[in-house]
Amino acid sequence: PSLLFSVLPSGLNCLQRNFPCYRGSPIYSSFAINCGGPQIMSFDQIIYERDNEAFGPATHYMTRTGRWAVSNAGLPADSNNPLYQSSSLSQFTNTLDSGLFQTARISAGSLRYYGLGLENSNYTVSLQFAETTILGTRTWRSVGRRIFDIYVQGNLEMKDFDIVREANGTFLRAVVREFRVEVLENYIEIHLFWAGKGTCCVPAFGTYGPLISAISATPDFNPTVSNNPPGGNKNRARLIVGIIVAIAVTSLILAAAAAYYVFQRRKRQKSFEDDELFKFDVRPYTFSYAELKIATNDFDLANKLGEGGFGPVYKGTLEDERVVAVKQLSVASHQGKTQFVAEIATMSAVRHRNLVKLYGCCIKGDNRLLIYEYLENKSLDQLLFRTESKSLYLDWATRYHICLGVARGLAYLHEECRPRIVHRDVKASNILLDSDLTPKISDFGFAKLYDDSKTHISTRVAGTIGYLAPEYAMRGCLTEKADVFSFGVVVMEIVGGRPNADSGLEDDMIYLLEWAWNLHENGRELELLDPTLPQYDANVAKRIIGIALLCTQASPALRPSMSRVVAMLTGDVEVPSVTSRPGYLVDWKFTDATTFATNAESSTSEADNGYMNTTTSATMATDLSYMNSRTSASMTPDAAYNSPYNPAKPMLHDIPGDGR
Fold this sequence. Notes:
Layout: H1 2-7, H2 12-15, E1 31-35, E2 40-41, E3 47-51, E4 58-62, E5 68-73, E6 85-87, E7 103-106, E8 110-116, E9 122-129, E10 147-152, E11 155-162, H3 163-166, E12 175-182, E13 187-193, E14 211-212, E15 214-219, H4 233-248, H5 250-255, H6 257-275, H7 289-295, E16 304-308, E17 311-317, E18 323-329, H8 337-348, E19 358-364, E20 367-373, H9 380-385, H10 396-416, E21 421-422, E22 431-433, E23 439-441, E24 448-449, E25 461-464, H11 470-475, H12 480-496, H13 512-521, H14 538-551, H15 562-569, H16 583-586, E26 632-635, H17 637-641, H18 648-653
Parallel strand pairs: 1-3
Antiparallel strand pairs: 1-15, 2-3, 4-5, 5-8, 6-7, 7-14, 8-13, 9-12, 9-15, 10-11, 10-13, 16-17, 17-18, 18-20, 19-20, 21-24, 22-23, 25-26
Helix pairs in contact: 10-12, 10-15, 12-14
C-alpha cells in the first residue's frame, strides 16, 4: 500500500480512505469555485477560485491549498474531440454575475466536487447553472435535452434536473439552486450524475451529461477557524518578502501617482455612465461592444436597416444564432445618458407578446446601443402604404388581428405593467410584424413613466403629426387617452389601407378622420374600407370603424380605455354609438387658406422600420395641415398652438375641468 500511494498523483491520497483530508482539524469555513473558468470576483465580493485545468475521461484535481477538489469520470460516446469545458461570450439574464456563467464544467458521466477541511456545522450550498451548448435557435439544434441527477452529501436532492426546463424554457438564463447541508466529517460532496436520460447527439455527438457553472458554500454559523490556507512559517516568510518588495517599489508608485490620478479620474467618469444601470430595480441584459461588432460585421452598411433621428439601426446575428436589430445611438444625439438608461430600464421591465422585446444594451464609452428582437416583416406602414412592400398582402382577418394585438399591447402598458406607461407615439411605423404577422408595438424612446399624480407634462410634446391627440398637441396634457386617440387613427389607416392624410386624393377624402365622419353621418361607413379587400365581414367592419370614431373623440373623457377597446373588438361589450362630430372637425375647415408654414415638407423620411424614432422638425406644408402623417414632430405646446390644427376654444371646451 505504501508503494501504491507513493506513485499516486498529488492529492489523490487525500481523497482516498474515507477522506483523511484535514479530518478532525478543520481550517476552512467556506469555498467558491468558478467551474471551467478563471478566478473571478462576484457582485457580492465572493472570490470564486479558478477551475480551468485540462480534464480527461478519468480525471481528478485538488487545489494546492486543499480547499476543494474535483473528480470526473466518463467519455462521451461518438465524440472525436470530447470537451469537458464550455464557454460563451453571451450575457446571461437573471443574475448580477453574468461572467460566472460564461464558463462551465461538463462531464459525460459523473462529476464530483468536494469542499475539504470544513468546520463541522450547517452550510448553505449554492449550485449555479446555465445551458451554454443547447441553445434556442428555433432549429433542430435546439431540441436537445440535458438531464442529470444532483446529489449533495450522498442525498438525491434533484432527480432528472433539466437546466432549460428550470429556466422556464428561457435560454441563456441563470438558474441557482440552494441546499442546506450539515457537515459532520469536515467535507461536503456534490455529485452530478448522468443516469442515461435526455438526448445524446444534439446539437452534436456527445452533448449530454451534467453541466455546472459555479459552486459556493457559505456557513450558517459564526466560524471559529481562520479560513486561511495552511503554511505556517512559510506564509510569514512570504509576508515579510512581500513587505520588503512593497517598500522597494514605493518610490515608483509615488513617481507614477500623478498619472494614476488622471487615469482614475477618467475611469471614474466613464464608470459613472455604466453605474447608472445599477440604479434600476430591473437591470438590463448587457452585451459587449466587440460582440455586437462581430454580429453586425463591424456595422457593415449591407446590414443597415435604416436611419433614425437617434442614429442607424443594423441587422445582426449573435453567437447563439439569434437575429437582432442593433440600434446605435448617435454620439451627436441630444438624448442624454439618463434618458438612455431610463429607456432601457423601462423596456427591460416590459414583457408582452404584442410589444417588441428588448434583448439588452451596450454602453462602452461614447457607444450606446440597444439590441431588439428582429422582426422580418418590418413595419405596418410599409405593408399598408408602400407599393414596393405590398407583395405581402394583409387580408381582412389579418387586419382585424393586428388591431386587436395593438389594443392588447397598449392595454398592458396602460393598465397592467408597473409602473404604467404612456407610449406617446403610437403610429403605423411603430408597429412591427413578426413572421406570423403578429403585431408588436415598438419604440419607447419617448415613453414616459405614467404617474397618477401628474397628468400635465411640462416637457416638450413629442409625437407624430397626424396621430397627436388634441389636448396633448395643444396643451401638453398627457394621459393614456392620448394613446387611445393615436390608436383610433391607426385603426382607420388599417381598415382603409391608406395614410391619415393623402394630398393626392379628392378634397373631401384628403384627411382620413374628416372623410370617415362624412361617411359615418351618411350611413356609408363601409366605403372607408380598402378597395383592394376582396372580402370582409361587414358587421365586424362597422364595429371596428365605430371603435375608431369613439377613440378619436376630442374630449379624453369620451374615449374608452384600451381594455374596454379590447372588449369591444372581441364583441364582449357593445360599441356605443357616436353621433357628435369632434370639435376639431366642426370648427375648422381644412380647405381654409393659411399663412403659417412656409417650409417645404421635411425631407427627412421615416426610417425603414420601426426600431427607431425619427424626430423631424414641426414645420408643416399648408396643403397637408395637421394630418401630415409623413412628418414626425417634437413640438413645444406653443408651437402646436399656432399650428393649422388649432381649433383652440372649441377644443378647450371639450376638455373636462377647463373653464374657458
